[in-house]
Automatic annotation (TrEMBL):
Annotated stretches, region: Disordered: 300-322
Domain Serine aminopeptidase S33 span(s) in chain numbering: 33-275
Pfam family, one: Hydrolase_4
Official protein name in the record: Serine aminopeptidase S33 domain-containing protein
Biased composition (Basic and acidic residues): 302-322
Domain of life: Eukaryota
Species this chain originates from: Acorus calamus
Amino acid sequence: MDQAMDSIRYEEEFILNSRGLNLFTCKWLPKDQEPKALIFICHGYAVECSITMKGTMTRLAKAGYAVHGIDYEGHGKSSGLQAYIPSFDALVDDCLDHFTSICERVENKKKQKFLLGESMGGAVALLLHQKRPTFWDGAILVAPMCKIAEEMRPHPIVINILQKICKIIPTWKIIPTKDIVDIAIKMPEKRQEALANRYCYHGKPRLKTGNELLMVSLEIEKNLSKVSLPFLIVHGGDDIVTDPSVSQSLFESALSTDKAFKLYPGMWHALTSGEPEDNIDLVFSDIVSWLDNRATMINSRSESERKAEHDDDKFLLASSHD
C-alpha cells in the first residue's frame, strides 16, 4: 500500500438484492479516527465505484468521512447485463436498501448521512431524497443529470415510438451517441485510464436504458421545486454532457434554504477525475469545506456521553474490588 493510503482502510463485499442479483459494494474508512459522518456514493452511467470513483472516495475518507459505494445492476462488478437498466426505480431501491441498512447499524445511528451523486448518480441522489425526504442530511451533486435541456428534448411522438420499440427489443444497442469518455474527460491520460477500465461500458446505450434515463429526467424536472434537503452543486462551465444551465435551474427552483451552486469556468464534465490535478484539488476543497461546515457530529456519541460511560466503567471496576 502506498503511503498516501496508510490513513484509510478499504473493504468490499457482494450483497444479494431483492431480485436475487449479486451487487458489488465497497467502503473507504478513516483508520485512526471516528468518521465525521457517512457519505454514500451514487456513480454515473456506465461506470462503477471501486476504480472510477476511487479518487473521490479516498479523498473523502482522508478528510475523515466513512464513504460507501455500490455498483448498480449491470454496472461494474455487479450482476446484470452490462449497462442495461431495466428499471431505474429498482436501481434506486437497491441503493436505498443498502444505504439505509448501513445507517441503521448501531455505530452509525447518530451519524449524519450525506449523498454524493455524479452525473446520472445525481438523479439517483435526488430520487433517494424524493423517496425519503427528511432522511438525508444533505447532498453533493456533481454535474447532475436532473433535466433535459430544451434543445435536446425529444418530440413527444419520438418518445412514444421509443417506448413502443423498447417493449420489443429493450437491450438493443442502437441509441446514436458519442462515447462519453471523449467528451467528459479533459486530460488525455485520464481518458486512457477510463478506456482501459474493463468494468466500464463504452458501447452505444441500450434502448430500454435510454428510455429509462429519459423518463427519469422528465420526472425529476417536474419535481425540482420539491427538492428540500441541503445541497451543493458543482458543475464545469464547459460541460457538454450535462447542461450547467440545468443545474442553475435546480438551484433556483429548489425549496431548500441551504443550497449552493459552484460553476467552474473551463472545466468539463468529469470534475472529480478528468481534470488537471489543480482543478480537481479546487473542486474537492469546496466539497470538503461544505461537508465540514455541516458535519457537526464529529463522533457518533457526544463527549459528555463518552465521559459518562468512562465514569461508569471506573465505578464498576471499583465496585468489583470491594
